[in-house]
C-alpha cells in the first residue's frame, strides 16, 4: 500500500472536544493529590495566592496562544510560532524540549496508573498494569484523532463531575449540613494561617501550582486538528478562565476550610497516598464511607487522561518537528486515518524505555523526571515571547488588528506578565539550595535549563540562524509548510 508522504492530519476535533481537553488537561493529580501539600507548606492564604497568581498567568498565556492559533492553526503550535516569529533556533529548542517533557510525563503516568491499581489488586505486580495502560493509550491514539478526542472528553467529564460534587459536599460540610458540626472559616486563622513561612515558601508553592496547570497549552496543539479553529479556540479559552477560578481556587478554598494546614494528612504528594488525598479526607469528613475507593477510581481516570493527552501532545510535536525539518523525515508520515504513526511509535518507545528505567535504574528515572521538571515553564516563556514578536511584526507589516479573528486581552500586559512570572518561578524553584550551595540539588532542579540552552546553541551555531527582523517575519496563513 503506497502511502502518501504528506497526507495531512485530519481536522475532526469539535468544540466540545477542545473545551474538555483544555479543561481536563489542567485537572489532574496536581489538584486531587498535590494541592494538599501546597496548603500544608504555605498555609491556606499562601496556597490560594499561588494558585490565583498562576491561574491569571495561564489565562493570559491562553489568550496569547489563542490569538496566534486562530490566525495560524498548526499541529505543533508553539514550536512553529517560535520558528516563524522569533528565531528558528528557538523553535527547534522549544519543540524538542516540549516533546521530551511529554514523553517523560507519559512514563510517569503509566507508572502512577500501576500504583493506583495496586490499591485494589495489591498482589498483581505493578508492571502488568503499566503495560496494559500503555497498550490501551497507544491503541486509542492509533485509531483516529476522533477516538482520542472522545476518550479525552469522557475521562475529563468524570473529573469535572467529581470536582463539582466535591465542591457541593465541601460547602455543605463547611456550613454544617453534612458531617456534623460547621467548621466555618476558623482554619483560615488557625495558628500562623493564612500565610505560613513568608515569600520563599509561597514561591515554592508557585511551582506546585504551575505543575497543576500544565497541559492547558494543549489547546494550541489541538488547533491543527480542530474542525473549526476560529470558533473552538476562543470558546475553549473563555471557559478556561472560569474553570480555573471555579475548580482550582474554590477546591483549594474548600480543602483549606475543612482541614487545618497543620494536619499531617495533607502531606501526601503522590498517587500512592490515595487514602489521604484531600478530596478523600473531605468526603470522609462528610460521612461518605466509600470515599477512598471512589476517589481512587477518579484518580485512575485522571492519570489515564493525562497519559492520553501526553501521548497525543508529544506525537503531534514530533510530527510538527519533522515537517519543519527539525526531526527525521519519517516522523512526518501520516497514515490514511490521519495519524502520524511513526511519531506515535517513536514516542511510545521512549515512554516505554523511560518506564523500564524506573524498574531497573531508579537513578536514571529520577534524573529523567527532574530533567523534565521546568520544561513546561520554558514552553510558557516561549509562548509569551512569540506572541510579543507576532503582534509587533503584524503591525509593522501594515496589518490592521481588526484582521485578527481573536484578540488577546490587555495586550501587551498579558505576555509581559507571563514572561516575568515564569522567570521568577523558574529562578525561585529552589532558592534554598543556592543558599546552602547544594550543587547536586541545584543540578537536579535546574537541569532542564542547560538542556534547553544546549539545543538552542547547537542549532544556532550549526545553521547560523539570526533573530528574524520584524519586517521579514512570515505571516502568510498557508496550511502546509512543505
UniProtKB/TrEMBL annotation:
Segments crossing the lipid bilayer: 20-39, 99-121, 127-145, 157-178, 198-219, 240-261, 286-307, 339-358, 364-390, 410-427, 439-459
Keyword annotations of the record: Amino-acid transport, Membrane, Transmembrane, Transmembrane helix, Transport
PROSITE patterns, A to Z: AMINO_ACID_PERMEASE_1
Keyword Chaperone appears in the UniProt entry: no
Gene Ontology molecular function: amino acid transmembrane transporter activity
Claim: Transmembrane helix is one of the keywords in the record: yes
Subcellular location: Membrane
Taxonomic superkingdom: Bacteria
Record membrane topology: Multi-pass membrane protein
Boundaries of every Amino acid permease/ SLC12A domain copy: 17-466
GO cellular component: membrane
Protein name: Amino acid permease
Organism of this sequence: Lactiplantibacillus garii
Lineage: Bacteria, Bacillati, Bacillota, Bacilli, Lactobacillales
Amino acid at each position: 500500500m503506497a502511502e502518501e508522504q504528506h497526507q495531512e492530519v485530519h481536522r475532526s476535533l469539535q468544540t466540545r472536544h477542545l473545551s474538555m481537553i483544555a479543561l481536563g488537561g489542567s485537572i489532574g493529580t496536581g489538584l486531587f493529590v498535590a494541592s494538599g501539600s501546597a496548603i500544608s507548606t504555605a498555609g491556606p492564604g499562601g496556597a490560594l495566592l499561588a494558585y490565583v497568581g498562576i491561574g491569571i498567568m495561564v489565562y493570559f498565556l491562553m489568550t496569547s496562544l489563542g490569538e496566534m492559533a486562530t490566525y495560524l492553526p498548526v499541529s505543533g503550535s508553539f514550536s512553529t510560532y517560535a520558528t516563524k516569529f522569533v528565531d528558528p533556533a528557538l523553535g527547534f529548542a522549544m519543540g524538542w524540549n516540549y516533546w521530551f517533557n511529554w514523553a517523560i510525563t507519559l512514563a510517569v503516568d503509566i507508572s502512577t496508573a500501576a500504583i493506583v491499581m495496586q490499591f485494589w489488586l495489591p498482589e498483581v505486580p505493578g508492571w502488568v498494569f503499566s503495560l496494559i495502560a500503555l497498550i490501551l493509550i497507544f491503541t486509542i491514539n492509533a485509531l483516529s484523532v476522533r477516538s482520542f478526542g472522545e476518550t479525552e472528553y469522557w475521562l475529563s467529564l468524570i473529573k469535572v463531575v467529581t470536582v463539582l460534587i466535591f465542591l457541593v459536599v465541601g460547602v455543605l460540610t463547611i456550613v454544617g449540613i453534612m458531617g456534623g458540626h460547621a467548621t466555618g472559616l476558623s482554619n483560615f486563622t488557625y495558628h500562623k494561617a493564612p500565610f505560613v513561612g513568608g515569600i520563599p515558601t509561597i514561591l515554592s508553592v508557585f511551582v506546585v501550582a504551575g505543575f497543576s496547570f500544565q497541559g492547558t497549552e494543549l489547546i494550541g496543539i489541538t488547533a491543527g486538528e480542530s474542525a473549526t479553529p476560529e470558533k473552538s479556540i476562543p470558546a475553549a479559552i473563555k471557559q478556561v478562565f472560569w474553570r480555573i477560578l471555579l475548580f482550582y481556587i474554590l477546591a483549594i478554598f474548600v480543602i483549606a476550610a475543612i482541614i487545618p494546614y497543620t494536619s499531617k494528612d495533607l502531606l501526601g504528594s503522590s498517587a500512592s497516598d490515595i487514602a489521604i488525598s484531600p478530596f478523600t479526607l473531605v468526603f470522609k469528613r462528610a460521612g461518605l464511607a466509600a470515599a477512598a475507593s471512589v476517589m481512587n477510581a477518579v484518580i485512575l481516570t485522571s492519570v489515564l487522561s493525562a497519559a492520553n493527552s501526553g501521548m497525543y501532545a508529544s506525537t503531534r510535536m514530533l510530527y510538527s518537528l519533522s515537517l519543519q525539518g527539525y526531526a527525521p523525515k519519517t516522523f512526518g508520515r501520516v497514515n490514511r486515518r490521519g495519524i502520524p504513526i511513526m511519531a506515535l511509535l517513536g514516542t511510545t518507545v521512549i515512554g516505554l524505555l523511560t518506564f523500564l528505567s524506573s524498574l531497573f535504574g531508579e537513578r536514571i528515572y529520577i534524573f529523567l523526571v527532574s530533567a523534565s521538571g521546568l520544561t513546561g515553564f520554558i514552553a510558557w516563556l516561549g509562548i509569551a515571547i512569540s506572541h510579543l514578536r507576532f503582534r509587533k511584526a503584524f503591525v509593522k507589516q501594515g496589518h490592521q488588528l481588526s484582521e485578527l479573528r481573536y484578540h488577546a486581552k490587555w495586550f501587551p500586559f498579558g505576555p509581559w506578565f507571563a514572561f516575568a512570572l515564569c522567570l521568577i518561578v523558574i529562578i525561585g524553584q529552589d532558592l534554598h539550595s543556592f543558599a546552602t550551595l547544594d550543587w547536586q540539588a541545584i543540578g537536579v532542579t535546574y537541569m532542564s535549563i542547560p538542556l534547553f540552552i544546549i539545543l538552542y546553541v547547537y542549532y544556532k551555531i550549526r545553521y547560523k540562524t539570526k533573530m528574524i527582523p520584524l519586517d521579514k517575519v512570515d505571516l502568510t496563513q498557508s496550511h502546509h509548510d512543505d
